[in-house]
Known about the structure:
- The protein has no helices and seven strands.
- The chain is an all-beta fold.
- It starts with a strand and ends in an 8-residue tail after the last strand.
Amino acid sequence: xxxxxxxxxxxxxxxxxxxxxxxxxxxxxxxxxxxxxxxxxxxxxxxxxxxxxxxxxxxxxxxxxxxxxxxxxxxxxxxxxxxxxxxxxxxxxxxxxxxxx
Length: 101
């Protein structure tokens, strides 16, 4: 057993006020194994995500700019125990850019 994976998704929506006009796109930016072996119950596993390692143009998070589009990123974690049971967790992450200058 063991392991876990992380990935980020970017989702965009566009269209008018009608729900049928909304288009959602999802893209997996990267996948990797965090650890090998089963963690002990209650164990904390720190995860550091380096943005330079993502093979895509990462933008800040945008929330419904002019009701036209939104860009959101999610970290999807999968934990596999020694009996090959899978546990899933999805967490939205917010990316921002400091003021330049």
